């Protein structure tokens, strides 16, 4: 557990989380939409710092990134939690876990552990993936800074709902990203519990910041195929 980045204190021991575009206002002892950021005595904490639920060496094309170090391996990690509630999520058992249960599962990792495993596996990059990396930004950021010192690239596989301030914060250490552009605004509201506008703005901003961007859309017949 670590005190969260990007929040402000409000009256009555409430806090406002500014990590993503939900901008949750969180009461005492409550959690945000992601299920992994909790208000304790007027301070916001990340409950998933160093709690890695999945880790694996993947081909970079699995992210999917097809034009960023093609043919290379990427050490991939995630924690539980997500700021979306996509009804078609293939990783729902870990992305939605904190919304169903109170505990936070995962193996204890330090940023040094993550970078060490990436190097041992001959990986050219570390991917923050499987769930939404925005919700474990504090841990991802520490890993990213250390990875760059060791000459390892950083990749996010993201829904693109991160706040602008948080995106600019990680940008110096983010080398590539695949953004999942899911559909139109109706699809986002009905299926994901979000809005499309912040995602579109972030795709443009990522490009302006010089980060390699690839965009994926999963086609679901009768929902986003028109």
Automatic annotation (TrEMBL):
CDD domains: Radical_SAM. Its cofactor is [4Fe-4S] cluster. The gene is amrS. PANTHER family: PYRUVATE FORMATE-LYASE 1-ACTIVATING ENZYME, PYRUVATE FORMATE-LYASE-ACTIVATING ENZYME. The keyword Transmembrane helix does not apply. Keywords: 4Fe-4S, Iron, Iron-sulfur, Metal-binding, S-adenosyl-L-methionine. The keyword S-adenosyl-L-methionine applies. One of its GO terms (molecular function) is metal ion binding. Residues 67-226 form the Radical SAM core domain. This is AmmeMemoRadiSam system radical SAM enzyme.
């Amino acid at each position: 557990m670590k005190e969260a980045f990007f929040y402000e204190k409000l009256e009555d021991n409430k806090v406002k989380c500014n990590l993503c575009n939900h901008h949750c206002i969180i009461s005492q002892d409550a959690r945000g939409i992601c299920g992994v950021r909790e208000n304790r005595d007027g301070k916001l904490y990340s409950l998933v710092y160093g709690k890695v639920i999945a880790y694996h060496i993947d081909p970079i094309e699995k992210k999917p990134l097809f034009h960023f170090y093609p043919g290379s391996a990427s050490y991939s990690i995630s924690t539980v939690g997500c700021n979306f509630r996509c009804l078609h999520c293939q990783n729902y058992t870990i992305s939605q876990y904190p919304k169903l249960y109170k505990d936070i599962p995962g193996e204890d990792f330090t940023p040094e552990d993550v970078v060490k495993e990436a190097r041992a596996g001959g990986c050219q990059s570390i991917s923050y993936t499987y769930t939404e990396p925005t919700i474990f930004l504090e841990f991802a950021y520490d890993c990213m800074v250390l990875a760059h010192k060791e000459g390892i690239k950083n990749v996010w596989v993201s829904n693109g709902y991160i706040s602008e301030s948080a995106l600019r914060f990680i940008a110096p250490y983010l080398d590539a990203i695949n953004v999942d552009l899911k559909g139109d605004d109706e699809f986002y509201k009905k299926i994901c519990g979000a809005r499309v506008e912040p995602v579109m703005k972030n795709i443009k901003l990522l490009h302006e910041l010089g980060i390699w961007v690839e965009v994926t859309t999963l086609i679901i017949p009768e929902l986003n195929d028109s």
